[in-house]
Design a protein that fits this description.
Blueprint (H helix, E strand, L loop, with lengths): L1 E2 L8 E4 L3 E11 L7 E8 L5 E7 L3 E4 L3 E11 L2 E6 L5 E5 H4 L11 E7 L2 E6 L3 E9 L12 E6 L4 E5 L7 E5 L5 E4 L3
């Protein structure tokens, strides 16, 4: 148990009959009249739904212990992503639904953070940016390079993003894993 006065970003709370909610934002408010309260923005850990919730200051809330482990993506086993704990070498099978959008950027050997609660995998978090190779993209048209246009490109994972016209097949680029945006070339 914790008090709403102790909330921190990233803290996981157990609310509404055992559902897990992660604190995205919080703000302590002391109005001129009436008691103080805490305004929060919470994200459902399993569904990703974000809600606004207000608590009276000092209210007790149940916290959940979430175990975050650094793991390495090893291989695909049917519809399951297999991650290996780099300390214990234990393997963990995570289904595609739980991996979510991170699946668009995962290749063998990538490091990820796997969040677990009571043995159940909650989500897989990747670094903010990853380096991937362009598997295929059409060549840019001569003379088009001066305009800030973009074209579709297929990454080595099979996911398609928009890249500038000067990018060619086989180049290594940096991609934002939160938005899927092209961040720049990687100089090897």
């Amino acid at each position: 148990m914790a008090s709403t006065n102790d909330l921190k970003n990233g803290m996981v709370l157990k609310l509404d009959g055992g559902q897990l909610w992660s604190v995205v934002e919080f703000q302590h408010v002391k109005p001129g009249k009436g008691p103080a309260f805490v305004r929060t923005k919470l994200k459902n850990v399993l569904s990703g739904k974000i809600v606004d919730k207000t608590f009276n200051a000092g209210t007790k809330v149940e916290t959940a212990t979430v175990d975050r482990r650094d793991m390495q993506f090893s291989y695909m086993d049917g519809d399951y992503f297999v991650f290996m704990d780099m300390q214990t070498f234990d393997q963990l099978h995570v289904d595609r639904k739980t991996v979510g959008d991170a699946a668009n950027y995962l290749i063998e050997g990538f490091d990820a953070t796997v969040a677990m609660h009571e043995g159940e995998v909650l989500n897989v978090e990747l670094p903010a940016a990853v380096e991937l190779v362009i598997k295929h993209t059409e060549p840019g048209v001569q003379g088009d390079r001066s305009t800030g246009g973009s074209k579709p490109a297929e990454l080595e994972t099979g996911y398609e993003i928009q890249v500038p016209l000067f990018i060619t097949t086989g180049e290594k680029i940096k991609v934002d894993t939160r938005s899927g945006e092209y961040l720049g070339r990687v100089n090897s």
